[in-house]
């Protein structure tokens, strides 16, 4: 699926081909909560990095999160969160550990996206205390990370062209 996206102020526009375009995985970790704003629930899609086209690269900023380890030390995430330096909109994540992929934020996509058959709310163990995740029949809740990948979830629901 061809996706088109942009930041709020319009200085950055991008396009890419998504192999996993259904926004189902809602993240409540402190990184997503603080960089995307609100209570969390950032949703990343799966796209092919080679198809990413960007207008307004001069307005891009990149943030690499600091992750606190169990022993109290910190490490820098290899994930590069791209955002607009004009308005702060979160746009996509790229991680050189998976160089063939890019993960656009569903919130930055202007193309109508499919409605997911279920929603997975992950990393609820680190959500803000005032945040309540939706709890309908199609909502799944995880304190940590899912075992299933974006691709595998789409495949299980018959949403991939194999």
CATH class, named Mainly Beta
CATH architecture field:
Beta Complex
User: How do the SSEs run, as a string of H and E?
Assistant: EEEHEEEEEEEEEEEH
Helix content: under 10%
According to DSSP, the number of beta strands is: 14
How confident overall, as mean pLDDT? 92
Give a short summary of the structure:
This protein is mainly beta and 162 residues long.
Question: Can you give a write-up of this model?
Answer:
The structure is a single chain. It contains 2 helices and 14 strands; from the N terminus they run E-E-E-H-E-E-E-E-E-E-E-E-E-E-E-H. It is mainly β and 162 residues long. The chain has a single domain (2-156), classed as Metal Binding Protein, Guanine Nucleotide Exchange Factor, Chain A (Beta Complex), CATH 2.170.150.70.
């Amino acid at each position: 699926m061809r996706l088109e996206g942009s930041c709020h102020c319009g200085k950055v526009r991008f396009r890419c081909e998504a192999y996993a375009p259904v926004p189902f995985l809602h993240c409540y970790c402190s990184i997503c909560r603080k960089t995307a704003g609100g209570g969390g629930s950032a949703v990343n899609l799966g796209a092919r990095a080679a198809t990413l086209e960007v207008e307004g690269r001069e307005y891009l900023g990149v943030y690499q999160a600091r992750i606190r380890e169990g022993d109290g030390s910190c490490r820098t995430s290899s994930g590069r969160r791209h955002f607009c330096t004009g308005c702060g909109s979160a746009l996509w994540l790229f991680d050189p550990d998976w160089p063939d992929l890019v993960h656009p934020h569903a919130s930055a996509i202007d193309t109508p996206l499919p409605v997911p058959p279920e929603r997975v709310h992950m990393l609820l163990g680190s959500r803000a205390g005032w945040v309540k995740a939706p709890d309908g029949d199609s909502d799944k809740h995880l304190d940590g990370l899912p075992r299933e990948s974006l691709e595998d979830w789409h495949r299980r629901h018959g949403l991939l062209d194999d």
